[in-house]
Specification:
The chain is mainly beta and 138 residues long. Helix content is 4%, strand content 41%. It has one helix and twelve strands; from the N terminus they run ββββββββββββα. InterPro entries: QdtA_cupin_dom, RmlC-like_jellyroll, RmlC_Cupin_sf.
C-alpha cells in the first residue's frame, strides 16, 4: 500500500530556452494531475515568517517557486519531508491529507500555487494535534 507521503513528488515543467529569456508553463492533467480550479501566490513574506500550517481534506496543489526560494515541510503525521524549491520549472505536487507549511523564504521570493478546488474554509484542517490524532483524510 502506498503511503500518502510517498505521493508527494517533484514535477519537472517544460522549459523553453531562448536568448531573449526562458519560458515555462503547466497544463492541467498533463503536468498537473488535476483540473485547476484556483491559483494564488504568496509574496512579501517577512524574514523568519512561515506560511501554511494546515492540511486539506480534498484539495490537491502544485507549488512553484517562481522567484527566489523557500522550503516546504510536509508530513502525513508519521513521516516528515522537507523540500527546497528554488527553480521556476519545478513544481511540488502535494496531495490531500498532507500537513504542510512553508518557511525560509528568500528576499523577494514568489510562491505560485495551482489548486484543485475553489476556496472552501471547511476543507482546511488547521489544528496539527487534531490532524495527527484523527486520521489524515486519506
Amino acid at each position: 500500500m502506498i503511503k500518502k507521503i510517498d505521493e508527494i513528488k517533484i514535477v519537472k515543467l517544460p522549459k523553453i530556452l531562448d536568448d531573449r529569456g526562458n519560458l515555462s508553463f503547466l497544463e492541467e492533467y498533463k503536468h498537473v494531475p488535476f483540473e485547476i480550479k484556483r491559483t494564488y501566490w504568496i509574496y512579501d513574506v517577512p524574514g523568519g515568517e512561515s506560511r501554511g500550517g494546515h492540511s486539506y481534506r480534498i484539495n490537491e496543489e502544485l507549488i512553484i517557486a517562481l522567484s527566489g526560494s523557500f522550503d516546504v515541510i510536509l508530513t502525513d503525521g508519521y513521516e516528515v519531508k522537507r523540500v527546497s524549491l528554488n527553480r521556476s520549472y519545478f513544481g511540488l505536487y502535494v496531495p490531500n491529507g498532507i500537513w504542510r507549511h512553508m518557511e525560509n523564504f528568500s528576499t523577494n521570493s514568489l510562491a505560485f500555487i495551482a489548486a484543485s478546488t475553489e476556496f472552501d474554509e471547511a476543507d482546511y484542517e488547521r489544528d496539527l494535534d487534531k490532524f495527527k490524532n484523527n486520521g489524515k483524510y486519506i
